[in-house]
Amino acid sequence: MIMVQYHRAGPGAPLAPGKQVGVASLPEAPKPTTARGPASPTASAAVAHRPPDGPGVRLTGGLLHDWQRRSHTASLPLALRQMEAAGNLDNLRLAIAGAHEGYRGPVFMDSDIYKTLEAIGWELGHAPAPNLAEFAASAATLLEEAQQPDGYLNSYIQVSGEPRYSRLSSSHEMYCAGHLIQAAIAHARVPGGAPLLPVARRFADHLVDTFAGRKVGIDGHPVIETALAELYRETGHGPYLDLASQFIEQRGHGLIGDSGFGRRYLQDHEPVRQSAAIVGHAVRALYLEAGVADVAVEHGDDELLATSVTRWEDMVGGKTSLTGGVGSRHSGESFGDVFELPPDRAYNETCAAIASIQWSWRLLLATGESRYADLIERALYNGVGAAISADGHRFFYVNPLQRRDGHYEGDDPGRRREWFSCACCPPNIMRLLASLGHYVATTAAEVLYLHQFTGATVEANLAGGALRVDMTTGYPWSGTVNIEVRKAPADACGLAIRVPGWSRDARFSVNGSVVAPGPGDGGYLIVRRHWMPGDVLRCDLNVSPRLTYPLRRVDALRGSAALERGPLVYCFEQADQPGGVSVEDLALAPGDLAERDIELPGVGRTVAIQAPAVRLDPAGPDGLPYLAEPDPGISGDPAAAVAVPYFQWDNRDGRAMRVWMPWTRPARSPAGPGPAADPDADSNETL
């Protein structure tokens, strides 16, 4: 077998390559020349779009920029403290010391360090941050010292003495390795990053040596697949991509073992190429899909890519909440059946929303289709945005769409927490927010595409030269987006902006002259011309409030409606309802939706929506929650219901909240609410 042994010259010294059998010395990884992000396809990859070749994207203003800065100044310092307080770093120190007791936390504690390090890597790409760089350098030293001579590194296994890879269904050994690799790639792609790539490559080489060409097992929690694919992209070392492909093709053949939840939970119930439905543990499923997409485009494997698209469509068509959250069941943190979308019992793990964004981004690169950017926007502003408190110090693991007064789950009131014993979500949020700029723009066929709207400077090298634009907007509060050209190639090129799927009457202009999307623009406005510095492409999206209704098959939501405004889902919190009326006793009614600019305690200024409603009788005639006859329609006193953005909920008290509200209307009305507002019709908006 191919093996590279490593030795340490002395205590505290970094590992150095020793005796080698069957391979030459590892080549130096190429230095990054552009602002590459978490997914950077090779030049030969079969993709329709590519990340910008050039300086890329720098966020300069707007809500996404605010979230990124908040993560840098509040969330990441919290994570650094928690790495010590929770025992993550101490576990590595125990491994270095050769201890066999004292390990703290679940088996995947190392992965929290790696995700935090990845977030730091992307943050260092924005600007120098001495405190973050110091932590990363110190952690890199610990990892070098803890790594074993053959490249293996896992503090739980090393301290517990458990045999390596003896229970891959639940040990998370390759899962932790995958996050190490992703952290190392982030640091390799930014100036001033920590020297993590040698550690990651030694572990990757160990995995190749141990598993390549063998049917000896695969990890129960995917992420190694996309990590190895990206490590191949970073280094050009083919065995990494080959092993990622092998792990994907070996799924569905019973090589993982039983974690206690069955094979569907582990996505090991049928081969990937034969699977048409997204099933099992949501985070595991979506991390696997990101790897499937990466391997498919690098191999030019249209069949493999098509299966991933089919499962994405299955997820979006009946397994995605209005907020973009996925994973409807607490049992197994898993997907449920098609249209099983309960608002109060929705699990919607934060990590699943992040994994959904990662998968959708890779499918966007592969296909160039705007629907993937639409879902990224929905999941980002709602499914991920709601997981963080306004001050950046507390986080949701579970993201329901309804909370009743009282306890949500046993003695858990359903509030955000500063940290978790299973702390996968907080550092995952941080690495996503640190890398947000990489999800804003792509290039294809001499066109610069803008997929997400925020204050940003975007620069890409096209064949004719550099195209640099400044994007300014108050999005999502305002629907106006201005894109001013700062530098342009000598020849004509294209500038494109996504037309959101929720948008009904978008207007566009160039230097004041009206332009419109063409029939073949595929969800984008594409303007090809000889651009000049000072030219302005303007987009005006109608972000007026709108009602959304569920499809009939969504039993848990039948007879209800939700409020949206632009990309934002809204919710009704008890704290905002006038006159002390219970949010549980309100039903929305036909009428005008009014916007109100308010000060939200603990949050700041926001746009609230006031909707006409009625106050219903909470009790049935016999004291039971049932009626002898169908509800005839509106019954009760007129009232007003006030909604705020879902991402801003739970920043005040722990009382009731609803996204979906009962919808009621007169039993007979000459005009009626009209077809577009008919709650018995299929939704006027689809995901």
Explain this structure:
Among the domains are: about 440-540, Maltose phosphorylase, domain 3; about 550-675, no CATH class. Strands 4, 15, 16, 17, 18, 19, 20, 21, 22 and 23 form a ten-stranded antiparallel β-sheet that branches. It is α+β, with helices and mostly antiparallel strands. The chain is built from 14 helices and 23 strands.
Helix content: 25-40%
Helical segment tally? 14
The rounded Rg comes to 26 Å
Uncertain stretches:
1-33, 667-687
Distance between the termini: 49 Å
Shape designation? globular
Mean pLDDT over the residues: 90
Number of strands: 23
**Percentage of residues in DSSP E strands:** 15-25%
Question: How does the helix and strand content classify structurally?
Answer: alpha+beta
Largest sheet: 10 strands, antiparallel
